[in-house]
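The aim of this short unit is practical: by the end, you should be able to scan a pair of folded records and say something sensible about each. We start with the first protein, listed as its amino acid sequence and then its structure tokens.
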Amino acid sequence: MSIEWYHWNDKERLEYCDAMEYLFENWGNFPTFVPYGGPTPEISREYYKRWRFVLTPENEIVFGNCLIPGITREAFEAFTQTMEEKVWK
């Protein structure tokens, strides 16, 4: 599901932003593979409020809860760049 076409409600928007902040504060870099320890090689263990890393059928890793669109590497890197620009300027 494309994030551009998803209709967000306030709770979902807040959940997405909180998960993005969790990644930024705790991971540093978006993983290049699904971390080990989950129920299958394509699904990681839970890391944040039922959010986990998942390998999609398109072979893309996302951080999500399977209820709203997940956070992609591109979205995380854009967020990280924005945060670093604001902090270092």
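Turning to the second protein, read its sequence before its tokens, just as you did above.
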Amino acid sequence: MEGLVYTTRGGYLENMTAPETLTPATVARGQGARGRTRAADLDDVQQAATVALAVLRRALVEGTPVTREAITHEAAIVFATDPAEAVSRLDSQAEGLGISSLI
């Protein structure tokens, strides 16, 4: 099942981009939207899940409030980039799952 991602809607997706954003050339190169590879898109999904679970864990176990600042801080650490880029990548994954914008 490598390269497949299970969605909350009960199905599998082969790549993490909308079909209309792909061209035969990008598919042949194994790329998705924005020139990113499917592996890079999957990495972003996994990192987004890590951010969400880390913030949720802190809220449940440590009683830390869930705030935009906490999510931004965790995203910057997990995505290993500046906060604005990290939140943008996190937001992109959320929107891909049908969750309205986080930012």
